[in-house]
Amino acid sequence: MSLSRLLLSATVAGLLPLANAAQAPQPLLDAANLSLAGASALLEQAVAKAIGEGVHPCIAVTDASGYLLAFKRMDGAAPGCVEAAIKKANSAAINDVDTVVFYDLARKDNLQLGSIPGILPAVAGLVIRQQGQRVGGIGVAGGAGDSQEQRFATELVRAFEKTLPVPPTLEEHRP
Fold first, then answer.
1. What pLDDT, in 10s, does the model give residues 85-110?
2. Which end of the chain is more exposed for a tag (fewer CB within 10 A), N or C?
3. Is there a domain that residue 1 lies in?
4. For residue range 152-172, what is the model confidence (pLDDT) as tens digits?
5. Which domain holds residue 122?
6. Domain for residue 114, yes or no?
C-alpha cells in the first residue's frame, strides 16, 4: 500500500467516529445553568436593592455547580464578607439547599455541620431555581444583620426567578 493511500485510510478512519458521534442520540440533555449574563443581571438588581436599603454587602453569584460567575463588593463592605458571600453561594448551589437550613439545624441540634466540606451553616445563601430546577446560587454577606441578609437575598432571588424563561420540555428535545 502506498504512503498516500495509507494516510488517506488513516484520515478516513479517524473521521468516522466523529461522523457517527454527530448522528448518535445524545445520552444527556443540556442542563439548565445560569449564564454570565444572567448572573450579571442579578448582580445589578442586588446592587440597586442594596443602595435602596442603605446596606453595603458583598454579593456572589454562582452557576449550578457552585462556581463563581459574578461578584461585587460594595463600597463600605467589610473585607471579611468577601469569602463569606462566595462560600454561601457555593454551599447553596452544590448542596441544592439554602444555607439557612444548615444554620437552623446547627443551632437547633448543635450539629457540627460547618466541619463538613462544602456545607456552610449561615443565612443568605440561596439556591436560584428555574421552575424548581437548580440553576445557580447566591450569597450575601455584610448586611445589617442575619435577618436583613436573609430577607434581602430571599426577596432578590424570588423576584429574579420570576424573570427566568420557562425551560423547554423534554419532548421539544426529541427528534
1. 999 999 999 999 999 999 999 999 87
2. C
3. no
4. 999 999 999 999 988 766 445
5. 36-161
6. yes
CATH assignment of the domain containing 134: 3.30.450.150
Distance CA 78, CA 109 (A): 30
Q: Which residues, listed in sequence order, are joined to residue 133 by a DSSP beta bridge?
A: 130
User: 160, 135 in Cβ contact below 8 A?
Assistant: no
Rounded to the nearest 10 degrees, the angle between the axes of helix 36-53 and helix 146-161 is 130
Instruction: Judge whether 98 lies within some domain.
Output: yes
φ, ψ of residue 69 to 5 degrees: the values are -110, -40
How far apart CA 44 and CA 151 sit, in angstroms, is 18
19 lies in a domain? no
- The residue type of 77 is A
Residue listed under C-alpha cell 495509507: 6
What pTM, to 2 d.p., does this model score? 0.80
